[in-house]
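Field log, afternoon session.

UNIT: design team B
ACTIVITY: writing a sequence onto a fixed backbone
BACKBONE:
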């Protein structure tokens, strides 16, 4: 009886070893090419199968596969999708390290208009003017105040913007033209008149001017209109 049990145990052990011998292992580390930091939580999958894993906090991954040829897919939102073809032999321990670059996603700027009540586009009475940087450069403006003089219907009187002859400031009521930088109000309740020198002229992407009452969206400070200065995003090209 003991001999039979011993033979059964040996056979089971040999079959297990044979099964493990048919398997191959692929592992490695995924690193950011620029920062040299590990890339965690990157999806690692085998094309055409349900086999997959993800990198750990140190960027390491490991897969156990049968011998054969596979396409290993590394994917994430930040780094996109990378496909690597590997050939695995039975019992082989293969290492595949990757250095990935961030995938740049460029989103074009757009202007969204809203109102309290839904209207068709041809029924909207408030007009919008957009002042681009090339106009500012061609006019050789030295301040945002001078740049706004190029917008039809906008004048600067005593440092106060006036849109379509509507005063920009009223004693006892405060500002009537909302001035913002990247959607952040430039004037607080105690700031008084706008300080145009605070607006970086060399970093302006565009100046948006809404003519007419916009208090539904921006409050009582926008009774006569809104001036929104949008600054530019950082560029890859160095400038001096």
């Amino acid at each position: 009886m003991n001999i039979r049990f011993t033979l059964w145990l040996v056979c089971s052990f040999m079959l297990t070893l044979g099964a493990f011998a048919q398997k191959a292992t692929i592992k490695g580390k995924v690193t950011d090419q620029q920062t040299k930091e590990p890339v965690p939580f990157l999806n690692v999958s085998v094309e055409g199968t349900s086999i997959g894993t993800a990198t750990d906090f140190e960027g390491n991954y490991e897969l156990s596969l049968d011998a054969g040829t596979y396409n290993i897919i590394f994917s994430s939102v930040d780094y996109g999708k990378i496909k690597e073809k590997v050939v695995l032999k039975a019992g082989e321990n293969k290492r595949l390290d990757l250095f990935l670059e961030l995938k740049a996603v460029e989103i074009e700027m757009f202007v969204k208009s809203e109102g309290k009540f839904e209207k068709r586009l041809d029924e909207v009475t408030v007009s919008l003017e957009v002042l681009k940087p090339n106009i500012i450069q061609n006019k050789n403006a030295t301040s945002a105040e001078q740049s706004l003089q190029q917008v039809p219907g906008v004048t600067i009187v005593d440092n106060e913007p006036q849109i379509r002859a509507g005063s920009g400031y009223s004693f006892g009521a405060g500002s009537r033209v909302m001035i913002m930088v990247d959607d952040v109000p430039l004037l607080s309740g105690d700031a008084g008149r706008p300080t145009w020198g605070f607006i970086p002229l060399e970093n302006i992407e565009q100046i948006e001017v809404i003519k007419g009452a916009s208090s539904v969206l921006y409050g009582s400070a926008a009774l006569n209109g809104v001036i929104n200065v949008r600054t530019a995003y950082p560029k890859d090209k160095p400038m001096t």
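LOG NOTE: The mean pLDDT is 77.
NEXT ACTIVITY: expression trials, pending approval
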